[in-house]
Design goal:
Layout: E1 2-8, H1 11-14, H2 21-36, E2 40-45, E3 53-58, E4 61-66, E5 76-83, H3 87-96, E6 107-111, H4 124-137
Antiparallel strand pairs: 1-5, 1-6, 2-5, 3-4
Protein backbone atom coordinates (compact mmCIF):
# COMPACT_ATOMS: atom_id res chain seq x y z
CA UNK A 1 0.00 0.00 0.00
CA UNK A 2 1.07 3.56 -0.57
CA UNK A 3 0.71 6.19 2.10
CA UNK A 4 1.25 9.89 2.38
CA UNK A 5 3.22 10.76 5.49
CA UNK A 6 2.46 14.37 6.38
CA UNK A 7 4.71 16.51 8.56
CA UNK A 8 2.52 19.11 10.23
CA UNK A 9 3.73 22.71 10.29
CA UNK A 10 5.03 24.51 13.35
CA UNK A 11 5.29 28.20 14.22
CA UNK A 12 8.94 28.04 13.14
CA UNK A 13 8.26 26.33 9.81
CA UNK A 14 5.50 28.87 9.09
CA UNK A 15 7.93 31.69 9.98
CA UNK A 16 10.37 30.32 7.37
CA UNK A 17 12.92 29.08 9.91
CA UNK A 18 15.13 26.56 8.14
CA UNK A 19 16.00 23.23 9.78
CA UNK A 20 19.41 22.98 11.42
CA UNK A 21 22.32 21.21 9.76
CA UNK A 22 22.03 18.53 12.46
CA UNK A 23 18.37 17.89 11.63
CA UNK A 24 19.07 17.88 7.88
CA UNK A 25 21.81 15.29 8.53
CA UNK A 26 19.48 13.11 10.64
CA UNK A 27 16.70 13.35 8.06
CA UNK A 28 19.14 12.51 5.28
CA UNK A 29 20.17 9.34 7.12
CA UNK A 30 16.52 8.44 7.75
CA UNK A 31 15.66 8.98 4.08
CA UNK A 32 18.59 6.77 3.06
CA UNK A 33 17.20 4.01 5.30
CA UNK A 34 13.80 4.39 3.62
CA UNK A 35 15.41 4.13 0.18
CA UNK A 36 17.46 1.05 1.13
CA UNK A 37 14.27 -0.60 2.43
CA UNK A 38 12.44 0.19 -0.82
CA UNK A 39 9.90 2.35 1.02
CA UNK A 40 10.57 5.91 -0.20
CA UNK A 41 8.78 7.06 -3.37
CA UNK A 42 8.99 10.84 -2.81
CA UNK A 43 10.00 13.31 -0.10
CA UNK A 44 9.57 17.08 -0.12
CA UNK A 45 9.54 20.02 2.26
CA UNK A 46 7.16 22.91 1.65
CA UNK A 47 7.58 26.68 1.86
CA UNK A 48 5.48 28.47 4.50
CA UNK A 49 1.82 29.10 3.72
CA UNK A 50 2.64 32.82 3.34
CA UNK A 51 3.99 31.84 -0.10
CA UNK A 52 0.92 29.76 -0.92
CA UNK A 53 -2.64 30.21 -2.09
CA UNK A 54 -5.92 28.38 -1.74
CA UNK A 55 -8.69 28.17 -4.30
CA UNK A 56 -12.16 27.94 -2.77
CA UNK A 57 -14.81 26.24 -4.92
CA UNK A 58 -18.44 27.25 -4.60
CA UNK A 59 -20.49 25.79 -7.43
CA UNK A 60 -18.98 27.24 -10.61
CA UNK A 61 -17.16 30.05 -8.78
CA UNK A 62 -13.48 30.01 -7.84
CA UNK A 63 -12.15 32.34 -5.16
CA UNK A 64 -8.38 32.65 -4.63
CA UNK A 65 -7.20 33.21 -1.07
CA UNK A 66 -3.57 34.20 -0.59
CA UNK A 67 -1.57 32.88 2.37
CA UNK A 68 -0.56 32.93 5.12
CA UNK A 69 -3.21 30.73 6.63
CA UNK A 70 -4.27 30.48 10.26
CA UNK A 71 -4.19 27.34 12.40
CA UNK A 72 -0.57 26.29 12.02
CA UNK A 73 -1.38 22.85 13.45
CA UNK A 74 -3.58 22.17 10.39
CA UNK A 75 -0.92 23.13 7.84
CA UNK A 76 1.62 20.88 6.13
CA UNK A 77 5.36 21.55 6.30
CA UNK A 78 6.45 18.57 4.21
CA UNK A 79 5.64 15.04 3.17
CA UNK A 80 6.87 11.63 2.12
CA UNK A 81 5.17 9.17 -0.19
CA UNK A 82 5.93 5.64 0.96
CA UNK A 83 5.28 2.13 -0.36
CA UNK A 84 4.72 -0.13 2.66
CA UNK A 85 3.07 -3.47 3.38
CA UNK A 86 0.68 -2.10 6.01
CA UNK A 87 -0.31 0.86 8.14
CA UNK A 88 1.55 -0.83 10.99
CA UNK A 89 4.78 -0.77 8.98
CA UNK A 90 4.26 2.93 8.20
CA UNK A 91 3.72 3.66 11.89
CA UNK A 92 6.92 1.82 12.80
CA UNK A 93 8.88 3.89 10.26
CA UNK A 94 7.42 7.14 11.61
CA UNK A 95 8.39 6.13 15.14
CA UNK A 96 12.02 5.92 13.91
CA UNK A 97 11.86 9.37 12.26
CA UNK A 98 13.85 12.23 13.76
CA UNK A 99 11.61 14.87 15.35
CA UNK A 100 11.01 17.25 12.41
CA UNK A 101 10.68 20.38 14.60
CA UNK A 102 12.06 21.69 17.86
CA UNK A 103 9.65 20.79 20.64
CA UNK A 104 6.43 18.93 19.89
CA UNK A 105 5.71 17.72 16.37
CA UNK A 106 3.03 15.71 14.67
CA UNK A 107 3.22 13.43 11.65
CA UNK A 108 0.04 12.13 10.05
CA UNK A 109 -0.17 8.96 7.94
CA UNK A 110 -2.86 8.63 5.27
CA UNK A 111 -3.38 5.69 2.93
CA UNK A 112 -3.45 6.55 -0.77
CA UNK A 113 -6.37 5.19 -2.79
CA UNK A 114 -5.43 2.47 -5.25
CA UNK A 115 -7.49 1.55 -8.34
CA UNK A 116 -9.02 -1.48 -6.60
CA UNK A 117 -10.31 0.77 -3.79
CA UNK A 118 -12.54 2.68 -6.21
CA UNK A 119 -14.79 -0.26 -7.07
CA UNK A 120 -17.20 -0.23 -10.00
CA UNK A 121 -17.03 3.57 -10.32
CA UNK A 122 -13.63 3.09 -11.96
CA UNK A 123 -14.77 1.80 -15.35
CA UNK A 124 -12.33 -0.06 -17.63
CA UNK A 125 -12.04 3.13 -19.72
CA UNK A 126 -11.21 5.24 -16.67
CA UNK A 127 -8.72 2.60 -15.50
CA UNK A 128 -7.03 2.66 -18.92
CA UNK A 129 -6.88 6.46 -18.79
CA UNK A 130 -5.31 6.32 -15.31
CA UNK A 131 -2.69 3.83 -16.49
CA UNK A 132 -1.94 5.94 -19.57
CA UNK A 133 -1.45 9.05 -17.42
CA UNK A 134 0.83 7.20 -14.98
CA UNK A 135 2.89 5.85 -17.87
CA UNK A 136 3.23 9.35 -19.32
CA UNK A 137 4.31 10.64 -15.89
CA UNK A 138 6.82 7.84 -15.48
CA UNK A 139 5.26 7.04 -12.10
CA UNK A 140 4.71 3.71 -10.42
CA UNK A 141 1.05 2.62 -10.20
Amino acid sequence: MRCLVIVKASKDSEAGVMPSQALLTEMGKFNEELVKAGVLLAAEGLHPSSKGARVKFSGGKRNVIDGPFAETKELVAGFWLWQVKSMEEAIEWVKRCPNPHLGESEIEIRQVFEAEDLGSELTPELHEQEERIRTQMGAKP
